[in-house]
What does this fold into?
Amino acid sequence: MRKRILIFSLAYFPQVGGAEVAVKEITDRIPDIEFHMVTLRFADEARTERVGNVVVHRVGVGSGYLSKVFYVPAAYVAARRLHRIERFDAFWAIMSYMLFPIALLRLSGVRVPYVLTLQEGDPFEHVFDRLRIRPFRPLLAYGFRHASAVQAISRFLLAWSVRAGFPGQGQVIPNGVDVAAFSGALSTERRAELRSALGAKPDTVLLVTTSRLVKKNAVDDVIRALPLLPERVQFVVYGIGKDEEMLRALARACGVERRVRFMGQISHAELPAALQTCDIFIRPSRSEGMGNSFIEAMAAGLPVIATQEGGIADFLFDAVRNPDTESTGWAVDKDSPEQIARAVETILSDPAAARATIAHAKELVVHGYGWDAVARGMSRLFTVVLGSA
It folds into this structure.
């Protein structure tokens, strides 16, 4: 009889981010475990459906802060009901916030082993010291204290588990990338067609980011760098978020409105072609748990400009800042538009060095960030936890 694991995740397909992609890629590759999930329901999504190897049970409705708050008791009730039927062998929390319903279950007598995955992109203080979280920190600490295992997607996030009270030895298993999908060649004709649709001329240099439009991802710093660069350098932005209107206003104020294209949200399947249509990937994050977008861009063969904040430092190595390691990108300090402009100019002025760095980055991704390897690591972790049940 297959073991059963219940996943707690605030969102799931068709709501797609790095964590959701990771869960699907991992669970699809572990067919010997039956996965269920309790997640928040958005709009008119089905209450229950199968997505790959996960039976998805949706609770609540809507988006916004209150829906996230009410998710916790709703997930607790739904999980108790499901557990009476399915008798789960383990739980799996996707991000620390998902410890709240698990902690409530444990306090009410439902005590099964559980794995916590740390995927957070915001700083520790933002996640744990916000006023709206502070009254519930004892419950969060209880969740960390009793976790059977902690898996973090970067060394930066693994250190969180110690600060938050996890007494064991966690392990780093990063998110991955579909190397074949992102490295597949885009035909010359198709690339030219897509560049034309973006209004690019033959000498246009297209910077690109795939990002939620929020402060931590620092899209504003790229816009501020554009006036320091030649007119032929333009910026393509894929993503949505609460800062979009502010960023549009900033582009107007900086006199670069015509050089910034806000493309909105695109599907994950469309990303490889979108990346390969452009010339340089850039996201100068102010904080980052890891950032799938960076390794996707590396797999797609783009030079990558980024900070080395948080988990980015695990894979982005700069020729000047990391002289003892093969360079995989161009590092800038956070809040530094001038450094961004210099990094772009460096890439454009030395194509041979850029090609070497791109090759090192792709090799790193192929050998360390394929989904098959990530799934094998998670499968071994689940085997240990389920063995302790």
Remarks:
- The radius of gyration is 21 Å.
